[in-house]
Amino acid sequence: MFAVQSLSYRVKRDMFIALTLLILVSGLALVRANSPIPNDSSPDVLVAGGGPAGIAAAYAAAKEGKTVTLVSETRELGGQMLNVGNMDGPKVNDTEFYVNWVERIKKFYNQKGVHIGTCYWNVRAVCAEPRVIDKISREMLLETQKVKILTGSAISASSENIKNAKGENVSKVTGIAFNLVNEKGQFNKELIKSKVTIDATELGDLLPLVNAPYRLSNGESNDPANLINENMCLQQATWAITIKEYPAGIPKDLKVTSPPPGYDRFKKRLETHLRQDDNNPNNDQIIFDPNDPIMAKSWEWKYHNKYRGLPNYNAANPKTSNVMTKNRTNNKINFDLTKTQSNFGQLVDIDMNVKDITNLAQRKKFLREMKISQFSFLYYIQNILHKNWSIADDEFNAFGAWNTNEPDLADAIEKRFPPIPYIREGRRLIGDETMTMNSTSRKNSSKKDLTNDPNTIAIGNYSFDIHGCNSPDTFESKFKESPTEIIGWNMGPFSVPLGALHNSKIEGFLVAEKNISATRGTNGATRLQPIAFRTGYAAGMIASFASDRGGLVGEVNSVNIQKRLVETGQDITIDVTIPVDNVRNTVASEILASSGLIDPVTSSSMLKEGYVQRGWFLKALVKTIEPNLAPTRALSSFKFVDVPSEDSHFFSFAKKQGITSGCTSTKLCYTSKITYRQMLVFLDNTLRFKFTDYPEKSVLSYGNNNQILKRVESINKFLGSDIKVPSLDSTITRNDLFESLVAVKTYMNK
Prior knowledge:
The protein is an alpha/beta fold. It folds into 3 domains: 40-213 and 231-236 and 424-484 and 495-563, 3-Layer(bba) Sandwich (FAD/NAD(P)-binding domain); 239-308 and 343-414, no CATH class; 609-748, no CATH class. Strands 1, 2, 3, 4, 5, 6, 20 and 21 form an 8-stranded mixed beta sheet that branches.
């Protein structure tokens, strides 16, 4: 059953074990020799972590012309995707980068006559083998000619004390020291200096190195009253393996011929949930078992395979080509799979505690437990279900970051485990803004329920999916969260703000993966791969802007980030259906929608027949300069007779500050078309009221055409806008109207 270890193998194994006991995450693979970037240890942007967020971050920064060094924890790029080759999560607006990545995967398999729609029984799902994920990700990065890819693990950080733009004393990260693997397979310590560092590791490994405050479970590293408890549970983890069918019989070294150590711990679970196919070849349906104490359901073998099915481009006769020809309503799937993953929670999920991450001795026990669960799974399907399936011999063939050799397990199987397990919950930055279950939850899946954030840099769409560890005491009481807030699978889209990626007390540093600033309940929704792609891309864009400012993330204007994200095809809000005239207007409308100034789903009632109402613009202008204005802050009891009562405080405020006098003493002419004349007067009055550095102090008269036209020059120069006036009394275009609001918003963020 067990392969014989060679002397050379034992040497390599001992090297790896020693390294693992010294550092949190490590790599064993050779540096790729085909990187086009010279050995420069001072890139503009340093990305730690080769998962979806790290890949997207490196790509985004490189496409903006920055030099990037990506240090992956493993030889293969993919991170959590190496365990989960299926892209979890309902679709939101697909971003350009994600679409490009997916289309390349589709093209690869299409050329081989293999269909990727094998997972979750859904032709629209994205599934790929781990090596294909690595191949496509690596190709995209290397094509930029700006990314150098290394393998290794962070062990220390360097920083300096500086003053930020506000004159505050802050720490600035200047470099990270890694244990890298060179061309000879040797571990070398190397300090990589950079203008901006992005932590895209699976567990937030850089956070303690740079002294960033972080959450782990329901505790906080910097809160004496609620410190992190090493015995507190985390979400369950899975070391999911890729398995495949061996029609001619399982290779001898891939058989598990006797129960592995600890098999009895998993036997009942396997017998309860996974059973032999019955005699009906068309029966692909779930069998519900009322006696099942865990989930009250069991799965047939072939149904289990389809749950996490993978395309298999090496299959002699691909069975996954032209699949999903069936009618979805008949609940039958008329194809078989030759490759899949064992990531099925009830079978292989393992309970996890904080100390399984932070305590190295405990971690070794935990890793072994995860491995035993998968060896037990293999033994069960080979000897109880009598299936010619085992771990895939064409995916991994080396020990990776977390792998430590277990002498009583089969070497040939163990070394084909993914290099790291799928850990759903690790350290999370305490950022300038914390995403909570309240701020991300939706009453239903309606896109109208999207809560907008003025500093949105990405969008996600998933439920609060907590794998185990969801008793009331495991949630963060300071945010008033509990399991009762878990709303199931009808959750709609949510915004990810820039402040979730950055702590203003630590400059030159961003996060991008599961480590973004969020409560542990919210982490159940933000941890998914498509969301990590989006947060990663945004982090790379922010880092690009910050590198031009000496690495100071706090000096980056969020609106400029939003503009560039939308320009490059990254959506920051959901389905903006406001009629647009060109790309400029599309960008502006997304930014305004992210701030709640435009309905992100349906054309606002204030936008009629292709024109914009006077009242809408004034309300949006007031909301831009006073985003927290409440009825109690109206400062005046004055009410225009033609203004909806629920909005009267906006216009009362505008009246009080001299932004508008209405079109009569009592009427705003709320629904009338707004002209360039009106808009320019509103803008000018707002700038004089709000900004002391606005050079024009005189009141602008509606009737003074020359003065108004001259004032356009001042407005454009002050705001950096590009308003062009064809005629003062012509109806303004959406381009100029929307961009004028974005210009004010941009200046507000300086």
